[in-house]
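It is worth pausing here to work through a concrete case rather than discussing structure prediction in the abstract. The textbook approach is simple: state the sequence, then state the predicted structure, then interpret. We follow exactly that order.
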Amino acid sequence: MKNLTELFGENVFSMKCLSEVTYKSLMATIKTGKSLDARIADEVAEAMKEWAVSKGATHYTHWFQPLTGSTAEKHDSFIVPDGEGSVVCKFSGAELTQGEPDASSFPSGGLRATFEARGYTGWDPSSPAFIKDDTLCIPTVFVGYHGEALDKKTPLLRSMKALGTQADRMAKLFGIPIKQKAYATLGAEQEYFLIDRAFYNVRLDLQQTGRTLFGIKPAKHQQMEDHYFGAIKTRVRLFMQELDAELWKMGVPSKTRHNEVAPAQFEMAPIYEELNLSVDHNMIAMEVMRKTAEKHGLVCLLHEKPFAGVNGSGKHNNWSLCGPDGKNWLSPGDNPHSNALFLTMICALMKAVDTHADILRATVATAGNDHRLGANEAPPAIISVFLGDQLTDIIDQIEKGGAKSSKTGGQISLGVDTLPALPRGNTDRNRTSPFAFTGNKFEFRAVGSDQSCAGSNVALNTIVAEALDEICTKLEADVKAGRNFNESLQKILAGIIEKHKRILYNGDNYTEEWAKEAEKRGLPNVKKTPDALKAFNTEKAKKLFSKYGVLSEKELHSRFEIYNETYDKMIEIEAGVTLTMAKTMFIPSAVRAQAELAGSIKAVAGSAMTGAAASLEAISSETENLYKAISVLEKTHGADKLIDAMGKVRTSVDALEKMVPKDIWPVPVYAEMLFMM
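Step two, the predicted structure:
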């Protein structure tokens, strides 16, 4: 393998090959938000084409992120007939900047009629082009004929602009020089499972739904806590090694790899980047994970809960704000109590999350994530904020009249003279909190492993923009009226804390005591996706997203319609697969087991077969229960009722798994899939 520094980004287009004038113009667009100069498009396109062809690319595509939650691409070759029976390779600025894929077959939630097919893709120069296989991929937005957002990138870019506008206002109030465009940063940790492809190939449920609809926990699963951060198996390490190499080639800064809590579960964590680029890189990472697993005879499972009874997978969304001064505004410094801007950001986030907890919850509402949220592996559906002892103490001081001191982290004494004392962080890590401050960023832990990070960050950017807007408006009015800035700020922050401190919780979010306490505080606890998605259909949400130009009412309603429809379709698919497997796999196996056991009893008469007769009776009884459960499921309609009916089918099948001989059981069991790799 090449030297890492040579390998990194080798399949990413570098703008350094452009002329100085074009390079400066394009960088100004990326760094300051300046409008793209259309006159440079031809030069950029020609340079991209020459580079891509030299790397073996034969096609180009506008790579976009429709509302399916995945990515989309239509490949066009570079070839153009030369009029003399041959071809030349061409790629124009017009082809770079705009494409026209058929928009009628993508979900639009009523934004487009089926007969209105026209949609446009537009080049996003802030995310670099890259080569995947033999194709030059150009990151783009995807919009309809009238400019309506049909994708996840367009509202993300809009939300980033809204956040940047408010950050600039805040900078001016604090006397901070504006040197660049303010932007949010993201580090998206990605959890996933790996299983042997041979097992996957005979599990219709995994193939069709991404999760096992049947199966019991093996005697040993994760209870020994020996898989987390354990030594990585050779086969998995080889997969991870190739995964890192492929990601590095495409400019994805994969940093950390390790075993996760459940057997066969793992994690990849990248270095933090500008948010839009990080979202693109996470979408690339999920695709590369699946492809790389295939090369190693494995399957990468990105469903939030592929196996019942063990930990599911999430995507920890680590968010921060880089101000127009180029500094992280969530970095507290040595004395956080005296860092007025930092404390303003903390209060803005408290206000934002408390005001719009329902919207944040809605962004992580999926059929898959419903199985994970609230279990002892992921944050509950109750949205709360963890600040840690030091920051909570400062917040309390501000509410009472002003912060004058900070609890220091101090050092951790190890009790061994030869070992150095370890500096203690300014906050512990609360792994049970859905929205936790972790030193210089907030970690939103509720995003599902198979989700795009775009939706949650659209919401997060927008609600923080609103909070900063309201703070700035009050401060600007006070400054204009001649009031003391620091006194005004103190009063504003104290008011925010008094109103929104109910959102703060530093304890164990898994406990029943917290659920009761949250209810007393008036915090919502929405456990099911259909109920959570209602937050997108409220007047509050419509006003929020339209005010900041992130989503119009029509665009927001389209998401509400699409996500509800996606949920219903997923439940219907799971119900269909449940029926198919139960009728064509488990019933025949149970009947065969009964026949073989009955034959053995008949062949060997006497008291020695009393136990076998009892086993036969148990299998027969449970098979009859399964027939009844299947009959009920076949007649059931509606997501909630289907989930309940599927659960009863699973109960009978899982009971039979404990009784039917292994050589008769038709599918690999959990013990095989989780441990045989």
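Step three, interpretation. Residues 553-603 form the longest helix (51 residues). The chain has a mean pLDDT of 92.
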